[in-house]
Automatic annotation (TrEMBL):
Residues 24-278 form the EAL domain. This is cyclic-guanylate-specific phosphodiesterase.
Amino acid sequence: LAKQTGGSHYEFYRSEIGEKKAERLELLKALRRALEQREFVLHYQPQVELATGHIVGVEALLRWQCPERGLVSPEQFIPLAEESGLVVPLGEWVLRKACAQARIWRDTGYPPLRVAVNFSACQFRQKNLVDLVKTVLDENELPPECLEVEITESTLMQDTTASLKTLQELRACGISISLDDFGTGYSSLSYLKRFPVDALKIDRSFVRDIPQDTDDVAINSAIIAMAAKLNIRVIAEGVETLEQLNFLRTEGCAMVQGYYLQRPASAQDLALILKNGRRGDSSY
Ligand code: C2E
Ligand code: MG
Ligand code: MG
Ligand code: MG
């Protein structure tokens, strides 16, 4: 009897795994179709320079407009896209789309913006990445200063020799590199010495509870002070309140990004925001 029960448990377990697998397969199929059918869109979130209140950059953030599932967040499909390798063609689409959009904004006469694009680890490992980036910039007649590549600490750690080479080549062309979600990965400070980056993005988990949480206050102050000494730009992510903004300003954080300033918006909506220039100075 015991054996039988065990057996049925096992069957149950196995069918649950089977279901998960089937679900993933289904999602992957849908993602492949989405790429062909152009179901992806980019939203853009302003990055604001605190000293001037100017929008000096935007981060391109991927959205999937799925006919069956509605608007799907990247958190729900990027991991699978990474595992399956689909993130490589998808990432190329993101890069092309973001640069084409940057061209449109320039042609419209807005002040030059830096567009930040998220690269996943396997994209960063692609041998032809630097050529691709250069080609896309050329095709859109954009100077390299227009582009910022966002990678995470774990991307740097995965294949340090190759990563270092890619990083140096991108920077040699004038493209800037920022370390996303800074402080949440496993990299040590020696990586900052070895891998030359232009900017650190303080992860929003450290920003959420400032200025109340004294540990987070210390972490933010330390990152900002260290970056200043290393001559690295700092962007605080996930700024949702005026209190957070004021704290970051006092600490000397140069740039901020978050819902308090602006939620990610469609290219169309962002054009209106850019047209109106800086968002009411009085609020920050
Ligand atoms: P990320 O690169 O760290 O992007 C910041 C995320 O924080 C975005 O989520 C953004 O909408 C959200 N955010 C911005 N301000 C606030 C705020 O004030 N409060 C809160 N709670 N959240 C805020 P999103 O767009 O859902 O993207 C999630 C992640 O998906 C990104 O994190 C990035 O890792 C990944 N991702 C997005 N687009 C791409 C892409 O084109 N390629 C790759 N490889 N990954 C992408
Ligand atoms: Mg990012
Ligand atoms: Mg981040
Ligand atoms: Mg993230």
